UniProtKB/TrEMBL annotation:
Keywords: Cell membrane, Membrane, Transmembrane, Transmembrane helix, Transport. InterPro entries: ABC_BtuC-like, ABC_transptr_permease_BtuC. It is a multi-pass membrane protein. Belongs to the binding-protein-dependent transport system permease family. FecCD subfamily. It is found in: Cell membrane. The keyword Transmembrane helix applies. The chain crosses the membrane at residues 63-83, 90-109, 115-135, 147-165, 193-215, 236-263, 275-293, 305-325. This is FecCD family ABC transporter permease. It comes from Rhizobium puerariae.
Length: 331
């Protein structure tokens, strides 16, 4: 309980720091006043521009970062349990690349003639990528085979994305899309806060509802069936929840890697492997990690903003290397 309070406190401080830090220097009292004004708690006279920057840009950005981190961390924890692979996560398995291709297809090619949203296109792309990985790694599923299938899926869908951008976008669109693909919270506002919060809330409830089944999957699908769990149905439901969370985040902020890899292992180290505690811990720690990463991306080369995917990769790649090395030694 003390650990949960500590993480909540750290998350609150990180969001407050994310709201306070930016190109425009705004006093802390103005920042607090802007938030309390919009919440209806106070009626302090403040410069309209500063209040709009705090509420409409910085706070919404920090909240989307938090929900994005929570969703990606949950997705990683689910994939690692279902596939029994410590290296599984949406980015490594190519699911994020597939979602990016679907989103770019809707964005630049107009798939669906306006009837399909960016999130729906990303969802279709993520499902296609996951099916591709499952087909390639079917049979003797080992960690190396699954990761190689994920690498192939990433290369395929990244190539498709590059082809679409190269042939269908002008120079301005190409620059904006390529920056977005590296991960960016620059364009998110309150509608994205509502969407990401809803998707993560539904995903968390679905995952916690199946926490006992996930514990059983740790010992294999046959063990889960022997405990009376409808293994096929649970697998489909959880994979759909994972694809939905990943696709929603990618459609809003682009492809952000390694959050789903690093956070579940860190949370598992703290709270243990039991999913009833692991899943909420992943959501909290993932939210904290992403908010801090967003702050780092804004201050490391200020006044320019580093793509958020670069920051997470700088943390995730060494972590990935250590896990892969340990897995090879244990093979």
């Amino acid at each position: 309980m003390a650990g949960v309070c500590l993480v909540f406190s750290a998350l609150f401080v990180a969001i407050a720091a994310g709201v306070a830090i930016g190109e425009m220097t705004i006093p802390m009292e103005t920042t607090i006043g802007a938030v309390t004004n919009r919440l209806g708690l106070t009626d302090i006279a403040l410069p309209r521009i500063q209040e709009a920057v705090i509420w409409d840009y910085r706070l919404s950005r920090s909240l989307v970062a938090a929900f994005c981190g929570a969703g990606l961390a949950l997705s990683g924890a689910i994939l690692q349990s279902l596939l029994r692979n410590p290296l599984a996560e949406p980015y490594v398995l190519g699911i994020s690349a597939g979602a990016s291709t679907g989103a770019v297809g809707v964005m630049l090619l107009g798939f669906g003639a306006g009837a399909i949203s960016l999130s729906a296109g990303a969802f279709a792309g993520s499902l296609a990528a996951f099916v591709f990985v499952v087909l390639l790694s079917s049979g003797r599923q080992t960690a190396d085979r699954t990761i190689l299938a994920g690498v192939a899926a990433s290369q395929l869908f990244n190539a498709l994305t590059s082809y679409i951008v190269s042939t269908s976008a002008n120079a301005e669109q190409a620059r904006s899309v390529m920056f977005w693909l590296l991960g960016s919270f620059a364009g998110v506002r309150w509608p994205e806060v509502a969407l990401s919060a809803s998707v993560v809330a539904v995903g968390l409830v679905v995952c916690i509802w199946h926490a006992r089944a996930l514990d059983a999957f740790t010992f294999g699908e046959d063990a889960a069936r022997s405990l009376g769990i409808a293994a096929r149905r649970v697998r489909v439901v959880l994979l759909l929840a994972t694809a939905l969370m990943t696709a929603t985040m990618v459609s809003m902020v682009g492809s952000i890697g390694f959050v789903g890899l690093v956070i579940p292992h860190a949370a598992r180290f703290v709270v243990g492997p039991g999913h009833i505690r692991l899943l909420p811990a992943c959501a909290l720690v993932g939210a904290l990690f992403m908010v801090v990463a967003d702050i780092v991306s804004r201050i490391i080369i200020a006044p320019q903003v580093l793509p958020i995917g670069v920051v997470t990769a700088l943390v995730g790649v060494p972590f990935f290397s250590v896990i892969l090395y340990r897995a090879r030694r244990g093979a």
